[in-house]
């Protein structure tokens, strides 16, 4: 049984407490209370099996019950721990058997309430520690993501596939922020036994436009295992020097026994993803992994793909006004909706680009900023484009580059591959191969339906393509 915040109740727990008490002297490998975090904690602290740990939790509860009602506690000890018949218990308490059966029901109900309160307290403590480990969120406020978080959490909280979920999209679109919000919501919901976060981020674009290189190398399988082991098994001594062959079975046992939710952030390339997939599949089920990447693995049937969309114009304008107020960009904060729409027409709904524009208004006037975006002028703008696009661009073959350069000629809301073939001068088969690569890198969006495809690009990508790529040739 997997208890979440929604079904943690004294009624459900009462039946399991009664069953666990009946099992006291019978032993066995599993306990009706095995799902409780109290039991899991007792196992970690003592090394006991599940049934013995559950018995320790029951004893703790009976001790607490005794402080309220010595008679109820005595009945439970004599009846279940000592294995006395109810007749014998009734004689000791100088009560009738029917009265003792009523007292037993009352005692079990109260014991369940005591354990429920202790379980909830432990869950609250663990949730607070998990949030504390996440640190400060990478955002002040999020806009337009609540429905995505709800949808993803509903899917993740169910003990069934998919076990691997990929949040994909171009740089700056908000993948990491969405993953962070999702993890915080999952911690609050109490649907998982533990949480982890591992990042493979290489670069950060500061809102000033400066690029910062992160001292974290491309994530290897060994690094993933070591990082997760330190986070999820702090009570388990790891071998020195670190050894994967010793640690992996311990980590796998932990993740396979109880559902955990793990985020692996910034796996930017297909190679990054494919390198880790065998290990992630080994560690998953019932645990689940949320991955973020600019690349897609559509041909991997075991991964659920969630393309992170850009913000709608409404939410983009909300973000602009919020950022303007919080960063003392008073002129932009007081700007008209028309001025804000001129920004979204150029930038689209890329949160990182929108925040960069807000910062630039502290130095330059808005027409100059938008003109710089369209002409790819200025260090901050060039760094933005480089951070979002350059790695992907340099990974394209010549045909895919030509197809992407022709995408601004596709009028909104996009056209099919045959139209792109005509405007690019490429053979239809070459365009189709190029689109496979461009869609997998989230440079081009595929819309339409089962019968027909429609391809388009973000407004920011359109702005970028008109000038910047020419400078990289």
Protein described:
- This protein is of the alpha/beta class.
- It has four domains: 10-126, Butyryl-CoA Dehydrogenase, subunit A, domain 3 (Up-down Bundle); 136-307, P-loop containing nucleotide triphosphate hydrolases (Rossmann fold), CATH 3.40.50.300; 313-386; 395-472, Orthogonal Bundle (Arc Repressor Mutant, subunit A), CATH 1.10.10.10.
- Helix content is 58%, strand content 9%.
- It has helices at 10-22, 37-46, 50-66, 70-81, 86-93, 97-134, 146-156, 175-189, 221-232, 244-257, 270-283, 313-326, 330-333, 337-347, 351-360, 366-375, 379-394, 398-406, 417-424, 428-440, 459-472; strands at residues 164-168, 194-199, 203-205, 211-213, 260-265, 288-293, 303-307, 445-448, 453-456.
- The longest helix has 38 residues, at 97-134.
């Amino acid at each position: 049984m997997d208890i979440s915040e929604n079904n943690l109740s004294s009624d459900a727990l009462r039946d399991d407490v009664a069953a666990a008490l009946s099992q006291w002297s019978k032993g066995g490998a599993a306990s009706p209370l095995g799902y409780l975090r109290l039991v899991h904690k007792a196992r970690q602290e003592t090394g006991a099996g599940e049934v013995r740990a559950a018995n320790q939790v029951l004893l703790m509860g009976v001790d607490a019950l005794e402080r309220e009602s010595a008679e109820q506690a005595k009945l439970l000890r004599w009846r279940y721990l000592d294995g006395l018949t109810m007749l014998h218990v009734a004689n000791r308490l100088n009560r009738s058997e029917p009265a003792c059966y009523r007292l037993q029901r009352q005692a079990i109900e109260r014991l369940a309430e005591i354990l429920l309160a202790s379980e909830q307290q432990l869950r609250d403590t663990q949730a607070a520690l998990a949030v504390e480990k996440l640190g400060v969120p990478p955002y002040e406020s999020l806009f337009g993501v609540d429905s995505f978080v709800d949808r993803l959490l509903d899917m993740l909280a169910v003990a069934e596939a998919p076990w691997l979920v990929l949040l994909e999209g171009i740089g700056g679109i908000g993948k990491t922020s969405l993953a962070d919000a999702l993890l915080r919501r999952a911690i609050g919901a109490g649907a998982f036994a533990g949480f982890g976060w591992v990042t493979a981020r290489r670069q950060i674009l500061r809102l000033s436009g400066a690029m910062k290189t992160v001292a974290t190398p491309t994530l290897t399988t060994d690094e993933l295992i070591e990082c997760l082991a330190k986070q999820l098994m702090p009570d388990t001594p790891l071998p020195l020097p670190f050894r994967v062959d010793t640690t992996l079975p311990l980590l796998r046992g932990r993740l396979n026994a109880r559902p955990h939710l793990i985020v692996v952030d910034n796996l930017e390339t297909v190679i990054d993803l494919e390198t880790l997939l065998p290990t992630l599949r080994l560690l998953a089920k019932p645990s689940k992994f949320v991955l973020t990447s600019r690349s897609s693995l559509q041909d991997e049937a075991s991964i659920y793909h969630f393309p992170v969309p850009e913000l709608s114009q409404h939410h983009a304008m909300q973000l602009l006004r919020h950022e303007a107020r919080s960063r003392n960009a008073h002129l932009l904060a007081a700007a008209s909706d028309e001025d804000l729409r001129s920004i979204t027409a150029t930038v689209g709904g890329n949160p990182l680009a929108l925040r960069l524009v807000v910062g630039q208004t502290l130095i330059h006037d808005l027409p100059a900023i938008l003109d710089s975006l369209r002409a790819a002028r200025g260090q901050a703008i060039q760094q933005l484009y480089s951070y979002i696009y350059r790695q992907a661009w340099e990974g394209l073959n010549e045909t895919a580059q030509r197809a992407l350069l022709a995408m601004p000629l596709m009028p909104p809301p996009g056209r099919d591959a045959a139209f792109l073939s005509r405007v690019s001068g490429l053979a239809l088969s070459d365009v189709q191969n190029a689109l496979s690569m461009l869609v997998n890198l989230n440079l081009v969006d595929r819309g339409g339906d089962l019968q027909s495809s429609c391809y388009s690009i973000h407004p920011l990508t359109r702005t970028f393509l008109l000038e910047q790529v020419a400078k990289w040739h």
